[in-house]
Design a protein that fits this description.
This protein has helices at residues 12-18, 21-38, 108-127, 142-151, 167-177, 191-197, 238-242, 251-257, 259-266, 279-283, 305-322, 331-334; strands at residues 8-10, 46-51, 54-63, 68-77, 88-95, 102-107, 134-138, 159-163, 184-187, 200-203, 222-225, 244-248, 275-278, 296-300. α2 (21-38) crosses α3, α2 crosses α11 (305-322) and α3 (108-127) packs across α11 (305-322). The chain is an alpha/beta fold. It contains twelve helices and 14 strands.
């Protein structure tokens, strides 16, 4: 069936072309600052379980600046990973605040891939010690690659250690990244060694149980906990949470879905006050970020719809400046 429209549709390859890391870092930073400054409660994401390792998610919300609203509609099928196909499929829909019209639809997998790493880069820039030189990546998937590329833009990294449950996948990731960043890339077969050597650690796995333990993390380290985005799977242990300054993207989201926080609270080990700040508050200087050189800082990245909408708005604005014709496609072409 042929479907024409007045809005733009951006396929995965077009999002990949238009959504550069530096630009995405800038718009995510601005979105999180505006989100925390505004203070208006945003809806929590809805996740429906469709079966083992199969989820359907809906993330609605509104941008403060640039003005707009919309939603990300996404399926996450973890069992697709072994087939070589994408685990994430869906769209980000951006509406115009004034007219209520759809402005654009963008491939959600590519938006999510880049904006997630951009959000970690924003947090790393704000919280990691400026002299940080060694990054440890726990995980070997698309987010591992994206995080290396994004974090290399906010710190002058010299060494990047990659640990994964599959050494073969870790080797492939390192080979793929060779020459794309200035740092030395190494596969690390021992997770403890990687953590102990790192100034910055990113956990970007799908593990349901901790892959990073608090006793491994040295004083002064900054950690981005990214892989677990809903209540249930826990990538880091309670010890790490208890010894860290815990920063989140959204308090309301963390209280509903930050798995390691919910587990520690259920055990009676922490209260809501353990959430030190939102990253937007740190960026706005309304709450402190790192308070001492030897402090361990921990950024919990659940992802927030304002990041997706800001990224989609950036893609649309960049395409408009280039004069790209991406409207009036058939349903199949719009994919």
């Amino acid at each position: 069936m042929s479907v024409t429209s007045a809005y733009a549709v951006y396929r995965a390859d077009e999002v990949r072309e238009l959504l550069d890391y530096d630009g995405c870092i800038d718009v995510v930073r601005a979105a999180m600052r505006a989100f925390s400054a505004d203070g208006t409660p945003q809806p929590l994401r809805e996740i429906i379980t469709l079966g083992a390792n199969r989820l359907f998610g809906l993330m609605p919300g509104a941008l403060v600046s640039p003005q707009g609203f919309g939603a990300k509609i996404l399926s996450v099928y973890a069992d697709r990973a072994d087939t070589g196909r994408s685990r994430h499929q869906g769209v980000v829909v951006l509406f115009d605040r004034d007219s209520g019209a759809v402005r654009c639809i963008a491939d959600a997998e590519e938006v999510t891939r880049i904006r997630t790493a951009a959000a970690s880069a924003v947090a790393t820039e704000a919280l990691a010690r400026t002299e940080s030189k060694t990054l440890a990546i726990f995980g070997c998937g698309v987010q591992a690659e994206a995080h290396v590329l994004a974090l290399s833009r906010v710190r002058a990294l010299e060494t990047i250690l990659v640990w994964g449950r599959s050494p073969e996948r870790a080797e492939r990731l390192v080979a793929n990244l060779q020459g794309r960043v200035g740092a030395s890339l190494q596969v690390c077969l021992d997770a403890q060694h990687a953590a102990e050597a790192a100034d910055i650690i990113c956990t970007v796995t799908s593990s349901p149980t901790p892959v990073l333990l608090g006793r491994w993390v040295r004083a002064g380290t900054h950690v981005n906990a990214v892989g677990s985005s809903h209540a249930g799977p826990v990538e880091i242990d309670t010890e790490l949470l208890l010894r860290s300054r815990y920063i989140v993207d959204s308090r309301r989201s963390a209280l509903a879905a930050a798995a390691e926080f919910l587990a520690a609270r259920a055990a009676g080990l922490i209260e809501e006050s353990a959430i030190a700040a939102e990253i937007g508050e740190v960026l706005n200087a309304t709450a402190p970020g790192r308070t001492a050189a030897q402090e361990v800082t921990l950024y919990k990245s659940l992802g927030h719809i304002v990041q997706d909408l800001a990224a989609a708005a950036y893609v649309h604005a960049k395409a408009s400046r280039r004069g790209m014709d991406v409207s009036g496609r058939t349903e199949a072409e719009g994919g």
